[in-house]
Specification:
The complex is a heterodimer.
Chain A (H helix, E strand, L loop, with lengths): L24 H4 L2 H22 L3 H4 L5 H23 L1 H22 L4 E4 L2 E7 L2 E3 L2 H21 L8 H20 L3 H18 L3 H21 L4 H8 L11 H13 L12 H4 L11 H34 L3 H25 L17 H19 L7
Antiparallel strand pairs in A: 1-2, 2-3
Chain B lengths: L10 H31 L1 H12 E6 L6 E2 L5 E13 L1 H6 L5 H11 L3 H8 L19 E4 L4 H9 L7 E10 L9 H4 L2 E3 L2 H6 L12 E3 L2 H5 L1 H5 L3 E7 L5 E4 L10 E4 L3 H18 L3 E2 L4 E2 L4 E8 L5 E7 L13 H7 L11 H4 L9 H10 L8 E3 L2 E4 L2 E4 L7 E3 L1 H6 L3 H14 L11 H8 L21 H18 L6 H12 L5 H8 L9 H13 L2 E3 L4 E5 L6 E3 L4 E4 L4 H16 L18 E7 L7 E7 L3 E8 L4 H17 L46 H10 L10
Parallel strand pairs in B: 2-10
Antiparallel strand pairs in B: 1-8, 2-3, 3-4, 3-5, 6-7, 8-9, 10-20, 11-12, 13-14, 13-25, 15-18, 16-17, 19-22, 20-21, 23-24, 24-25
Classes of the chains: A mainly alpha, B alpha+beta.
């Protein structure tokens, strides 16, 4: 941990105690955000345990299988965050082309026989017993890559806003991995990436025409798909089943219905940990991953589930503050992309369990079980911390 | 924004950042709001759904208690049938959903695989019958007629038949000991309805979906005791129906046994003799209508005088109560409820009402005494009595000169009572009543008429005392119709309607006079009359008749006796009671029933009787026979059966003879006597809880004597002159 120093800022300090000095890195970290993320991860450990402790088929006979792994993932995630802070987002900026290239290569590998299908999404790489979901990393490299392109000339003071050519280039950079992910198909991740692109463009100061054009294109495309009857009725029903479970009572409708029963039956204070009948009876599918929020809803009630939303709120609120406070556009764009990512993914994930969003296979940041998603989320926290740390002291 | 450092960024980005922040907050608030709506606003609803989701009940019905006769002979019990059932949850765990097992099972049971598959499939909108309608967690019966060999095959090869059970299961049975059907008294069972389940939900004896419920008779009255408590095992199940735990369970409690006061031997005799009497009546020519008597229905009650307990109760036509077991067929049900079969489900002993005729005269005599007339006074008994030009004839226009009330009862003289009732009517103010005393009506109410006796059988009817209040109410209800159809000087019905329209609300002289001999609008049930005659016999106590005598718990450890309960006293002093009793004995020795009781050992077993022949407008006369000995009262009635002594008398005598072990000549053989004294002791309960039951031999009726003997008997009983004197 001695490496908690920031290159490019002040002389090297090697003393442990100095790390906690008034103007030290440790003191200047965004602690509310960090602790909230940590709290979410630890709540996740408990919820994942509750959801899997009697699913013998999943936990390979060990009730603590997922408990230990989620805890381990959290630890690795925190280490990755620390590494990110140590490197700093500016250093990473120089490595973006390499990182982007690697991440695109990884998702291309998924399309080869090395890829594996888990839960209907061909989004996994299984190597030596470890499974990896490279699309999670792509989210980060899209943010970093687009930010690098869009901020380059603005931060250099050449221009007030990115020009059209740069925006087009940035969009092309994002489109390549998005198309690959769509082929998997992992539509949930594509949706998140679209939102990230939107957040990045917004915070980059790109012309309103780009923003509106993008939104218009998305809406137009959806209407086109609808009108041309490209989707079968059952596909539309499956999509709409979040609002009316009767449309697909055996498939997605069943899941959303059971999820809603689980959450609704929690009431104010919940059934108590490990006491939820919906959870114990395994009525809700994918409860340790995509539907982890239902465990909180049933066993911890409105208070516990509300706390999760509040903690996510703290993370996002602090991220917004960081985005607004930083002096360079690069950091602003990176923060904006992460905000869009976390905000949309959390809203979509919790919203689908509450029946106000269609079902999509997306994890709840920090809480859902899943190594890659956990690592990506903590790296994002590291990036945000780094942005905070590196803002000019003249402002402080 | 002023505190934001110089960033070199444009206001565009700054504004957009604020927009993003607002957007983020509103998304989170949306989630919080929706969470509140689901968990707080609709929380209870979802909690209920969650519990419905995960708890499944397996119900093991309690064995229904038996209904026993007074000596412990079962008249309703359970027989064991081998029921083969399949557990759907077990079958669904198999790779082929249990198809192979069911196919093997079909082979053993000699059914086709299709038949078996249809039995275990669940009913839904698209599945036609046959299909399983109950809970999928309940074992589904495939057949209840498995042979012991088939059951053994299944049980010995459990590994080949996982999820299949072959178990002896109790099914209701009405064994009819000694050919006594006791149909309407026993009642029947049928499956519980949704409505009943809902209604009993929060009571101390809720129904389960698998319950059978007593629908009438004893099965209904004592349903709660007989039913016991079904055992319920509650399993917590997961989304695949796999059991993940056991919740609170209730063990089954077998239903209690109900001991009745019915003696199945006497019951068999009563049913047989009532039927014989009706058959005999159907061969008799009715002189009024010049047709054979219809004898379309009849009822008989045998009651213990000192307790009101019912020893036998018959109602014809009857039915086989076993028809209801395992679900009644549509054909049987139609038959049981049709006019053509004359509604065999009716228990006419408590639900059949008719004018009582002369058996009512014990009430009129009491009324007269209470009104101040001397029982031993002299009252003219002319052949007819006229009121304002309307002539009321004595039965068969017989006159007896001047007689006392006792003799008037014996010979059943109508005109004595016409005279007394008319005098009272005049005293009460005649057509313009002033504070009427209404002795004759008041006394009938005091005898318990016009209301239920309180017998422990459902749906008893009240009968009717046609007093002033009733007349008024009845007129109010019907005057519109009468006044519309009534026509002065029209046909008989029109003339009656016309008169009713004008003065139907008033108690007319004719009404009072008719009423005094048990005719007109008076209605009584056989059980009411049995209660009254038993009260005369026991010194004046009107008991609530009972069939149930004791409830014995299934393990035999707890016996709850049902004590006799009285609902009133006869409105007469002991002197009057003795005078009436003497007169009723006279009926059997020298009066209207004497020709039927020749050779009766009156000194050993004093017989008291009263005959009645009630006229019914548009129908043949109703035969009534009310009688008692020191221990028993027997009342019999036959609708459209003729006279009391003619149609019912011999049958009643035969019942007594069987009970006391009498020959036709009045010789008593106590060994042959079925029940010379009322059965007071309860049946013996064995240490294991079973109840000792003696065997019952069917009733062998005495061969009818040659005609010559009958002639002798009739002569001995008071001469041919008294034939049909009711």
């Amino acid at each position: 941990m001695a490496g908690f120093s920031v290159p490019g800022y002040g002389p090297e300090r090697t003393s442990w105690t100095k790390a906690f000095a008034r103007d030290s890195v440790v003191r200047r970290l965004d602690w509310p955000m960090l602790l909230s993320a940590l709290a979410l991860s630890l709540v996740g450990v408990v919820l994942v345990y509750s959801a899997t402790r009697n699913r013998m088929g999943l936990n390979q006979g060990d009730p603590y299988f997922f408990f230990v792994r989620h805890l381990l993932n959290t630890g690795i995630g925190i280490a990755l965050m620390a590494g990110t802070i140590w490197l700093g987002h500016r250093t990473l900026r120089t490595a973006v082309p390499v990182l982007y290239g690697i991440s695109v290569l990884l998702i291309l590998l998924v399309l080869t026989p090395l890829g594996a299908t888990i839960n209907g999404a061909h989004a996994w790489l299984v190597v030596g017993g470890f499974s990896l979901q490279p699309s999670e990393f792509v989210k980060i490299t899209i943010i970093l890559g687009m930010a690098m392109l869009l901020a380059a000339r603005v931060d250099a003071g050449d221009r007030e806003h990115p020009d059209h050519r740069t925006v087009l280039l940035a969009l092309a950079l994002a489109t390549v991995p998005m198309l690959i992910v769509m082929l998997m198909p992992d539509l949930g991740s594509v949706m998140v990436m679209v939102m990230i692109v939107l957040g990045v463009l917004l915070t980059s100061g790109a012309s309103n025409r780009w923003i509106l054009g993008l939104i218009g294109a998305g809406a137009g495309g959806a209407i086109l798909v609808w009108q041309l009857g490209i989707l079968d009725e059952y596909q539309i029903n499956r999509f709409a089943a979040f609002a009316n479970p009767q449309l697909d009572p055996a498939g997605v409708g069943y899941n959303t219905n059971q999820a809603r029963i689980a959450i609704g039956s929690g009431g104010l204070t919940g059934t108590g940990l490990f006491q939820g009948t919906q959870t114990t009876g395994q009525f809700v599918p994918e409860q340790q991953t995509d539907f982890v929020f239902t465990v909180a809803g049933e066993e911890l009630g409105f208070l516990g589930a509300g706390l999760i939303i509040a903690l996510l709120g703290v993370v996002l609120w602090r991220a917004c503050r960081i985005a607004r406070a930083t002096t360079e556009l690069y950091g602003t764009i990176v923060a904006g992309g992460i905000i869009a990512w976390f905000a949309f993914q959390s809203f979509e994930n919790i919203g689908m369990t509450l029946g106000i969003m269609p079902v999509a296979g997306l994890p709840l940041p920090f809480v859902s079980y899943g190594g890659t998603a956990m690592f990506a989320a903590w790296i994002a926290i590291g990036l945000l911390q780094s942005i905070k740390l590196q803002r000019p002291l003249s402002a402080g | 924004m002023s505190n934001i450092p110089e960033t070199g960024r444009t206001p565009r980005v700054q504004i957009r950042l604020i927009v993003i922040q607002v957007l983020v907050v509103s998304l989170l608030l949306t989630l919080g709001g929706r969470l509140w709506y689901l968990q707080i606003r609709q929380g209870d609803e979802y909690a209920a759904k969650a519990s419905g989701n995960h708890v499944q009940q397996v119900v093991k019905p309690a064995v229904r208690g038996a209904i026993l006769d007074a000596r412990g002979v079962p008249i309703a019990d359970n027989e064991t049938r081998l029921v083969v059932s399949a557990s759907r949850t077990e079958l669904m765990k198999m790779k082929d959903d249990g198809k192979a097992v069911l196919a093997r099972l079909a082979g053993v049971l000699g059914m086709t695989a299709k038949e078996v598959a249809e039995k275990v499939r669940l009913c839904d909108a698209e599945t036609p019958q046959p299909c399983w309608n109950g809970s999928p967690y309940q074992p589904i019966p495939i057949t209840d007629e498995a042979t012991a060999k088939q059951a053994l095959q299944i049980r010995e090869r459990t590994e080949e038949f996982p999820g299949i059970t072959a178990e002896p299961t109790a099914v209701r049975r009405y064994p009819a000991p000694g050919k006594s059907q006791t149909s309407q008294v026993l009642g029947y069972l049928s499956p519980v309805t949704d409505e009943e389940i809902k209604k009993a939900e929060n009571t101390d004896s809720p129904y389960l979906r698998s319950d059978q419920v007593g629908r009438s008779g004893l099965e209904r009255t004592y349903d709660k005791e007989l039913r016991g408590k079904a055992g319920v095992t509650r399993y917590e199940v997961d989304n695949l129906g796999r059991v993940i735990g056991e919740a609170e369970s209730d063990p089954a409690e077998a239903g209690a046994n109900v001991v009745t006061s019915i003696d199945s031997r006497v019951q068999a005799v009563t049913e047989y003799e009532l039927n014989e009497a009706m058959k005999a009546a159907r061969k008799e020519m009715d002189r009024n209508t010049n047709k054979l008597y219809e004898a379309d229905a009849g009822a008989a009650v045998v009651m213990e005088n000192k307790t009101g307990r019912v020893v036998a109760m018959a109602s014809l036509p009857d039915y086989d109560p076993n028809s209801w077991v395992g679900g009644i067929s549509g054909k049987d049900y139609a038959k049981f409820t049709s006019k053509k079969s004359n509604y065999p489900l009716l228990n006419r002993a408590i639900q059949g009402q008719a004018a009582p005729g002369s058996i009512f005269k014990v009430i009129s005599s009491t009324a007269a005494v209470n009104a101040g007339y001397d029982f031993n006074g002299n009252y003219p008994c002319p052949s007819s009595y006229s009121i304002g030009g309307q002539v009321f004839k004595n039965f068969e226009s017989q006159g007896y000169g001047s007689i006392n009330l006792g003799r008037a009862l014996e010979v059943s003289c109508d005109t004595v009572f016409y005279h007394l009732a008319h005098e009272q009517w005049k005293k009460d103010g005649g057509n313009s009543p002033k504070k009427p005393k209404d002795w004759f009506y008041k006394t009938a109410h005091q005898f318990g008429l016009g209301k239920e006796t309180g017998i422990d059988l459902p749906n008893e009817v009240t009968g009717r005392v046609p007093d002033r209040q009733w007349k008024k109410d009845y007129w109010e209800a019907n005057k519109d119709g009468w006044c519309k159809t009534g026509k002065k000087g029209g046909e008989y019905a029109e003339q009656i309607a016309y008169e009713n329209c004008l003065e139907g609300m008033r108690m007319r002289a004719g009404d009072s006079v008719n009423y005094s001999i048990g005719q007109g609008d008076t209605l009584v049930t056989p059980i009411q009359m049995a209660t009254i005659y038993a009260a005369i016999a026991n010194g004046g106590t009107l008991y609530d008749p009972t069939v149930g005598k004791a409830v014995i718990s299934a393990d035999g450890k707890k016996t709850t006796e049902i004590e006799p309960k009285a609902h009133g006293k006869l409105p007469m002093n002991q002197k009057t009671r003795k005078q009436i009793e003497q007169a009723l004995a006279g009926v059997a020795t020298t009066g209207s029933a004497a020709w039927r009781f020749g050779g009766w050992p009156q000194d050993k077993i004093p017989m008291h009787a009263k005959t009645g022949t009630a006229e019914v407008y548009g129908k043949q006369t109703t035969s009534w026979f009310a009688s008692y000995t020191p221990d028993y009262t027997i009342v019999m009635t036959i609708s459209q059966g003729g006279t009391g002594s003619g149609a019912s008398g011999p049958a009643v005598r035969k019942i007594y003879e069987a009970m006391y072990g009498l020959t036709e000549d009045g010789e008593q053989d106590v060994k042959k006597a079925l029940l010379p004294k009322p059965q007071s002791a309860l049946p013996k309960v064995e240490p294991d809880g079973s109840i000792h039951a003696p065997t019952v031999k069917p009733y062998l009726p005495v061969k009818p004597s040659p005609p010559a003997d009958t002639q002798d008997l009739a002569t001995a009983g008071g001469g041919p002159l008294l034939w049909r004197r009711d």
